[in-house]
Amino acid sequence: MTELTVGLLLFPTFEVLDMAGPIEVLNVLSIYMGKSLQLHVIAATLDPVSPGPIEPGTSSSFAGQQLYMPTNTLDNAPALDLLIVPGGPGSGNKEALRPFLDFIQNVCKGYKGHPPAGYLFSVCSGSLLLAWAGVLDGKRATTNKSFWDFITSNGPKTHWVAKARWVTSGNVWTTSGVTAGIDGMLALVSSIWSEDTAEKVGATIEHNRAKASDDDPWATHYGCQDVLPVTG
Amino acid sequence: MTELTVGLLLFPTFEVLDMAGPIEVLNVLSIYMGKSLQLHVIAATLDPVSPGPIEPGTSSSFAGQQLYMPTNTLDNAPALDLLIVPGGPGSGNKEALRPFLDFIQNVCKGYKGHPPAGYLFSVCSGSLLLAWAGVLDGKRATTNKSFWDFITSNGPKTHWVAKARWVTSGNVWTTSGVTAGIDGMLALVSSIWSEDTAEKVGATIEHNRAKASDDDPWATHYGCQDVLPVTG
What we know:
The structure is a homodimer of 232-residue chains.
Chain A: E1 3-9, H1 16-31, E2 36-43, E3 72-73, E4 82-85, H2 94-109, E5 119-122, H3 126-132, E6 140-141, H4 148-153, E7 159-160, E8 166-169, E9 172-175, H5 180-192, H6 195-204, H7 218-222
Parallel strand pairs in A: 1-2, 1-4, 2-3, 4-5, 5-9, 6-7
Antiparallel strand pairs in A: 8-9
């Protein structure tokens, strides 16, 4: 693949490292390794998007950060090879997220003359948006382990894999909590380019990678079990 | 400590994950664990700061991101308990960084009636800024391993420790490449609050921590050796 058009979907109160882990991996690919990538930061408006607070006054001012200037709104995103969906406190607000869920659904089936996105990639509770958008129906997936019961109960047509740093199911990649986004994106880089490329990127960011998708201690830590799809 | 005033120093073409690793740790402390923190994003102007490209036209457009709206300029930063200095491609441009180096020097000795910062914390090649500012003179430090020779040669009065995920020397914390900032900030949290607090934050972000400061495979990977200060 010579050029990759990447979309980063940003909703209010996203998790900073859910966004930054995969973006760092792709930045290193672009800057240090000369791969040609195009980033589109896609949000509801072109105003800066903040990672918090979700309810003004309930968090300390530390969360009151203004991050990332969007380049595109949900209405004018281009055709994408890869859409990245982070999680975070704002991922639980289904009604507020409705336009984002419609966007995910559209991107996956193709719309406005665009072909379907090549890959869909979620980090942490970003999988909740994918589940609500219906794009995990009939698929295998994982998510962060500290909100396992809540998130898996919102995706009743999905086989949720507990002991997984990431899960691939067709072109949908879901990763576990926060830092799993780094490991998952390195695995995607290995899949698209080569394992050697992924190793070099990992070494550049001095990341002690989980190299196997089931190299995940957190399912045991949080006592999570696989959840099978509801049938009948 | 009941409240921590944190400064994040952002220069053009910083490394995204150098910034986001420590900020994520502190966000989780703030949002999920109720610690009272204040963040000030300090830059040359109040315009958004971009992680790249350092030389327009030399990088792909993937690096053309606008990140973080600064809250303060170098001239009006408040007294800080902790100053975070990321690295990245822009950290090598000594002349352009002069105002930032002066700022680091001032923050460390106290200025404008402010007491000296409680802690100084660098990630990756952020240690190069600390070295140029003179605040690593007579101290032990580490930095990223892929630019080891260049960075250590710019800090001739410093004992550079190769096999280190992070190094503490007085109130100065330096960490290794990129993802080491996550481990180092968790260690600082352990030091300020408690190991239990650091463990809970690490589990929330599902991070497979390096718990010991010398738990670093990258010195061997890159063939780095300790560099002693030049005497005489």
